[in-house]
Amino acid sequence: MLPASASPTALLLIDIQQGMRHATHWGPERSTPEFESKVESVLRAARAYNQRRPDKPVLIIHAHNHSARLASPLHPAYVFPDGAIGVAPMAVAAPVAPEPVLVKDVNSAFIGTDLEARLRAFKTAQLVVLGLSTDECVSSTVRMAANLKLLERDAAGSPAESRIVLLSDATAAWAKGGFCARTIHEVHLASLNGEFARVETTEDAIEAVLR
Predict the structure, then answer these.
(1) Count of structural domains within the chain
(2) Residue-level pLDDT at 154
(3) CA distance 162 to 22
(4) Which of 57, 83, 108, 172 has its CA 20 to 30 A from that of 23?
(5) Can you give the pTM of this predicted structure?
(6) How far is CA 211 from the centre of its chain?
(7) Interacting residues of 25 by C-beta distance below 8 A, sequence separation 6+
(8) In a domain, 1, yes or no
């Protein structure tokens, strides 16, 4: 990982929305109990870095899912009994100006949005990814980011897959198909690591990229 001050860096937050806190829709259990606190810490660190280094800012982008499925907690019409709107952001990842929110209705954050154009215009050389869920929208987006070859070469000429950084403890998955949530999460991280991305912890990424 490279310091954001030395390598144009984007931070992509995927589907960190109220609808993802539904108690049963996504599965009987979720991995990564520390997910929310890790999201909050990396977003806080990125914003603090931008305050210190407005000359070399991190590009913070939020991707939100607006599902076409009426029964989905991520459908634009879905409202929880407590009044929370399903497509609204979780409090730990609420966007602030000028952070863009890109709306999609499929898994990959690149489909139906201008994410690729934004990353290319920023001349992004390092992409840090977090969000939900590891095996679905996060995996789809990370794989597509690698296949699009959109990252600029860095000064050291390191391979692109080492500069797509996936935060292991700021992503999460749900149990399904007879497999526990932790297994789903860890298997998908292992599948992505080295081939499509570099899997790191939030703490290590903050220290290496945002200090």
Answers:
(1) 1
(2) 74
(3) 34
(4) 108
(5) 0.96
(6) 20
(7) 19, 72, 73
(8) no
Domain assignment of residue 53, given as a range: 9-209
Q: Hey, CA dihedral for 8, 195, 208, 182, is it positive or negative?
A: positive
CB atoms within 10 A of CB 123: 11
Domain membership of residue 4 (yes or no) is: no
DSSP run (H or E) holding 143: helix 139-148
Contact call for residues 42 and 12 (beta carbons, < 8 A):
no
Q: Please write down the long-range contacts of 135-139, taking CB distance under 8 Å and 24 or more positions apart.
A: 135/173, 135/184, 135/185, 135/188, 136/107, 136/173, 137/14, 137/15, 137/63, 137/65, 137/107, 137/108, 137/109, 138/14, 138/166, 138/171, 138/188, 139/188, 139/191, 139/192
Terminal Cα distance for the chain, rounded: 12
Per-residue model confidence (pLDDT) at position 155: 66
Mean pLDDT by runs of 10 across the 211 residues of the chain is 96 98 92 98 99 98 97 96 96 98 98 98 98 98 96 78 95 97 99 97 99 90
Q: 148 CB contacts (<8 Å, ≥6 apart)?
A: 110, 116
CATH number for the domain that contains residue 203: 3.40.50.850
**Per residue in 125-159, is it b (16+ CB within 10 Å) or e — as a string?**
bbbbbbbbbbbbbbbbbbbbbbeeebbeebeeebe
User: Is residue 145 in a domain?
Assistant: yes
